[in-house]
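note to self: dont lose this again. the chain is below, predicted strucutre after it. 148 aa total, dont forget to put it in the shared folder this time
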Amino acid sequence: MFDDTISDRQVVVSLELVKLIEWILEHENEGLRRLINRAVFKGMTANKPSQDFESLDDMNQYIVNFLSKMEVFLDNAVEQQLRKTLKKNDIIPAVRHIDTTSCDTSFIEHTIERITNKLPNPTNASPKELLLKELLKRWNPGKNCTLN
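---
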């Protein structure tokens, strides 16, 4: 197939990336199947012989590029999840002061989700202020609601 020897070529993959691949194989088989089908139907197998890989170096480079792109996407997702968790932790002290008799917990949880999605944007308002403003925007008291 190629004149190159494979003994000198190694690809280093992070443990996190291996765990991601394992998770995808365990939980996203259908999504992976659809992705592969889409690639085949959109012409992946229609390559002309002149477009094939010239050497093992070309193949190796494509694999490295793919794994590097996955690593970047994984790092971005982990960072985004971490920021979201930290934002929620900033909001928790304010949530403890909310009277849950006037609004249910699902309403509060949904509001927290909306706020944490808004927080990555630069803002001067504190997380507590944003939470309270969002709660007031969305709050619709019933006729049986007692007022202080």
